[in-house]
Amino acid sequence: MQIQVIEPLALFALQTNQTYDDRSYSWKGLVMTEATIVPGDDGPYHVSGDFVLIDGAGNKLELTDSETWLCRCGQSTDKPFCTGSHRDCDFTNTVRG
């Protein structure tokens, strides 16, 4: 399975109220919780469950729902979130295990 790194984001399924150490790109003292990340065929990552989304500066992004779609094509005007731009830029990628 190919894993793609989303920069400058660090996406983790973690409990909140912890400290992010951006020098080592690691989380300290966190307990993993249940989240599901599914790369869509020729589309975004669908993230659902209990997760925290952190930007490159270590700031927690506020989400209003327990699911979101993250851009994989790089063309979104609202990064890291998907705006459907993959449909217009001929993005193709099908991930299989």
Structural summary, described in words:
This protein is mostly beta strands and 97 residues long. Helices cover 0% and strands 27% of the residues. It is built from no helices and seven strands. It has strands at 10-12, 19-21, 26-28, 35-39, 45-49, 52-54, 67-70. A hairpin with a 5-residue loop joins strand 4 and strand 5. The N and C termini lie close together (5 Å). Mean pLDDT is 75; it is low at 1-26.
In short, what is this structure?
This protein is mainly beta and 97 residues long. The protein is built from no helices and seven strands. The strands form three sheets. The chain has a three-stranded antiparallel sheet with strand order 4-5-7, with no helix packed on it. Strands 1-6 form a two-stranded antiparallel ribbon. A two-stranded antiparallel sheet has the order 2-3.
Poorly predicted residue ranges:
1-26
**Helix content bin:** under 10%
β-strand amount: 25-35%
Biggest β-sheet: strands ordered side by side in the sheet: 4-5-7
Choose one word for the global shape.
globular
Number of helical segments with 4 or more residues: 0
The secondary-structure class comes to: mainly beta
Give the terminus-to-terminus CA distance: 5 Å
The main sheet comes to: 3 strands, antiparallel
Q: pLDDT average, as an integer?
A: 75
Number of DSSP-assigned strands: 7
